[in-house]
Specification:
D-Maltodextrin-Binding Protein, domain 2; 11 strands
Length: 334
C-alpha cells in the first residue's frame, strides 16, 4: 500500500468536504437510492382548496412526474388554518418521499402569526425545491366604482364603512399585504379570512366582500372574462401576464413588493438520495415546455434554478423576512 502522507490526506479530506457542500453533490457522487423510487402512489398535499392556481400547477406537474415514474401522482387538498393543517399532515407522515407538501409562503408565515404551530420548519421538513414565484393582485368586482388604488384608498378612509377584503387565511401573505396597506395609508379595512383564495374570489364575485388579494394565476380567468378588475400587483415589477396593471409602488404605495412563492418539501428523515431524486425529476418537469407554458399562462414565474440546498437556505431566509414583515404590519400572534 502506498502511503500518500499526512499532507495529501488532509488535502483530500478537505476537498471531499468542499465537494459535499456543493448543491446536489451527494447525488453526483453516486449516492444510491435505498430502493427503487417511487414504489407506490405519490401524493402532493395541497394546503388549499381545489381550483386555485397552485392546485392546477401541482396537478400538471403530477401528471408529468407520474408519466416519468410509472406511478400515479395525486393531489390531496387539505385547506384550513393558513396551510397549517396540510403542513402538519406531511410533517407527521411517513418519511419515504411518497407524501410531499406542495407549500405556499404561508408555511414560513404561520410560526410568526400563531402562538403555537404543530411543526418546526427546521426539524420537521426536508426542502426539495422551489417551483415558482406567485405575484398577487388586489382586485375588485368589475362593476365596482373603484378603478384604481387611489380610489380604493379614498373609499377606505370612510370610518363609517370599512372596506372588507378577503385573504387566504389569517397570517397569510394576503392578510399581511392588507394590514400593511391599512397601516401605511391609515385606512378602515376589515379582514375576512378564507380557507383558500378561490373561496375568497367566489365571495368577491358574489358581492359578499369589497375586494380581495388573489394570485394572478387564480384571478386570471376572471380578469380575462371581465368579471373582476385588478387595481395593482404586489411585485417589484409588472407582470408579463398583466402588463397594464401597475405595481403598488407605481400606484403610490411603497413597501408592498414581497412576492409569494410555492415549492415542494418532504418530511424530515426522508433519505437524502430520495430527496435528490425528487428534486432532479421535479426540476425536469418544471422545465418541460408544457409545464412552463401552463405556469406562465396561470400568471406564475417558473423557478428552475432550485435544489434542496438552495431551497433550504431560501426557506430559512424567508422565515426571517416574513417575521419582520408581519411585525411591521401589526399582525399579532393568535
Amino acid at each position: 500500500m502506498v502511503d500518500v502522507g499526512p499532507d495529501r490526506r488532509r488535502r483530500a479530506t478537505l476537498a471531499g468536504a468542499v465537494l459535499a457542500m456543493l448543491p446536489g453533490a451527494g447525488w453526483a457522487q453516486g449516492d444510491s437510492l435505498p430502493e427503487p423510487f417511487p414504489k407506490k402512489v405519490v401524493t402532493f398535499v395541497m394546503p388549499g382548496p381545489a381550483g386555485g392556481g397552485p392546485d392546477l400547477v401541482a396537478r400538471k406537474l403530477g401528471d408529468l412526474l407520474g408519466a416519468q415514474w410509472k406511478q400515479p401522482v395525486i393531489v390531496d387538498n387539505k385547506p384550513g388554518a393558513t396551510g397549517v393543517i396540510g403542513a402538519e399532515s406531511v410533517a407527521r407522515g411517513e418519511a419515504s418521499g411518497h407524501r410531499l407538501l406542495f407549500a405556499f409562503t404561508a408555511l414560513v408565515q404561520a410560526p410568526a402569526v400563531f402562538a403555537k404551530v404543530p411543526y418546526d420548519l427546521e426539524r420537521d421538513f426536508a426542502p426539495v425545491m422551489q417551483v415558482a414565484n406567485a405575484p398577487v393582485v388586489l382586485a375588485v368586482r368589475a362593476d365596482s366604482p373603484i378603478r384604481s388604488v387611489a380610489d380604493f384608498v379614498a373609499a377606505a378612509k370612510n370610518p363609517d364603512k370599512p372596506m372588507s377584503y378577503g385573504s387566504f387565511g389569517t397570517g397569510s401573505s394576503y392578510h399581511i399585504y392588507g394590514e400593511a396597506l391599512k397601516r401605511a395609508q391609515k385606512l378602515q379595512m376589515l379582514h375576512v379570512p378564507y380557507k383558500g383564495e378561490a373561496l375568497a374570489l367566489q365571495d368577491l364575485l358574489g358581492g359578499a366582500i369589497d375586494a380581495t388579494f388573489v394570485s394572478v394565476g387564480t384571478a386570471g380567468p376572471q380578469i380575462r372574462a371581465g368579471k373582476i378588475r385588478p387595481l395593482a400587483i404586489v411585485a417589484p415589477t409588472r407582470s408579463t401576464v398583466l402588463p397594464d396593471v401597475p405595481t403598488f409602488r407605481e400606484a403610490g404605495v411603497a413597501g408592498l413588493d414581497a412576492v409569494g412563492w410555492f415549492g415542494v418539501l418532504a418530511p424530515a428523515g426522508t433519505p437524502p438520495a430520495v430527496v435528490q431524486k425528487i428534486a432532479q425529476d421535479l426540476r425536469a418537469a418544471v422545465l418541460d415546455k408544457s409545464a412552463s407554458a401552463r405556469l406562465q399562462e396561470l400568471g406564475f414565474e417558473p423557478v428552475s434554478e432550485s435544489d434542496p440546498v438552495r431551497f433550504k437556505a431560501f426557506v430559512q431566509a424567508e422565515a426571517i423576512r416574513w417575521k419582520k414583515l408581519i411585525a411591521d404590519a401589526g399582525v399579532k400572534p393568535e
